[in-house]
TrEMBL record:
Protein name: Thermolysin metallopeptidase alpha-helical domain protein
Gene Ontology terms, MF aspect: metal ion binding; metalloendopeptidase activity
Annotated Peptidase M4 C-terminal domain residues: 230-398
Keywords: Hydrolase, Metal-binding, Metalloprotease, Protease, Zinc
Top-rank taxon, per record: Eukaryota
Organism: Talaromyces pinophilus (Penicillium pinophilum)
SUPFAM superfamilies (UniProt xref): Metalloproteases ('zincins'), catalytic domain
Stored InterPro entries: Metalloprotease_M4 (IPR052759), Peptidase_M4 (IPR023612), Peptidase_M4/M1_CTD_sf (IPR027268), Peptidase_M4_C_domain (IPR001570), Peptidase_M4_domain (IPR013856)
Amino acid sequence: MASICSIIPHYLLKTIIDKGEADDDIVAECRSTLAQVNQLQTARIEHSHQIALASQGLAQESAGVQGFIPPHIHQAILRGPAGEEEREASRRTLEHDTKFRTARRRERHLSRTVYDAQHRWSFTRDKILIPEGGPLLDKKIDPSTDGNECYIGFGKTYDFYLEYFNRDSLDNQGLPLDGFVHYGQNFGNAFWDGEKMVFGDGSRLFNGLTDELDVIGHELTHGVVQHTCNLKYEFQSGALNESLADVFGIMVKQWGENPDKPQTAAEANWLIGEGIWRQGINGRALRDMENPGTAFDDPIIGKDPQPAHWKDFVVLPNTKEGDWGGVHINSGIPNRAFVLASKKIGGLAWLGAGQIWYKAISSGELNGEAKFKKFADVTIKYSGEHAKDVQKAWEEVGYPFPERG
Ligand SMILES: [Zn+2]
């Protein structure tokens, strides 16, 4: 069964409600957030079937053209003490990369519209805050800056996919990106429902989420997954779906926060949803991709349940309460594999492991029910000279994932 991925997962809201350690008004907010997301599921399921049908038979574009040696390394060689021969080779490679990329780059069809939901629980499009091309909003009109952040976040996510993966929006055909800000009241969540991204203003427990590039990147990547390998949102394929959303979401952040000085795999902190918790909660983020299971530990919200290794895989039922077989939980395992692969390859994640992961999802070799083993095999197959690093990364989280006796 398909499901909306709201960035604050059902199981977490349920934990807060069941633990009963939070104030009554916080618990009430969690209940109302949960009820809203549940209501939207039905619409999402219907929409996802339509997309799956429409996508059948569409050829996937190949990954963007990128050398495995990141340009910044060639640039460093040019600046450094290397011999003239080496410098000349780097100069030529850089020139070639630039030419090739410019020649291959798709036309930019970015088309954003940011709407004001005006604190209603519905999506009438009667109040456009920012159409494509702007202008951005004056602080007086939108003091929260949510509208501007949504618009900018969409642009960065779109540009990231276009620039580095030669992908024209989520469907690779210029799908317009619609966003609704100020949704509902005390709605501490954000989600992509297959045709729009929706943000609440935050609640007593959760901060607003428009300023988190990884959250926007995460949610929009569910659209990319849907239009490529369409991994089923349950059990291992669902955990891979969730992991891919984190993988591409975190790369949007590592690149997009400061594109002039992007973060390397070694520099990045690999935290999803930093700043998601209001003050007073003992948590650094929603998830820690490098060290799954360590993002939070607090009486109100419980402890981060993500495993970091296959031996700790969490077996859960395919229900809402069971997080559809642990999709937001077991994603810790492939998340860590991606971080390890990125660090072993070095440089910027989207020029190394990110390219490999993208080739895997657009290869046509994953069906909707792919498990960890199959996904790992396909990434190893497409990792070229980095095959050993990628295989080692998977082995460190339990590859080849033998069934537990
Ligand atoms: Zn998700």
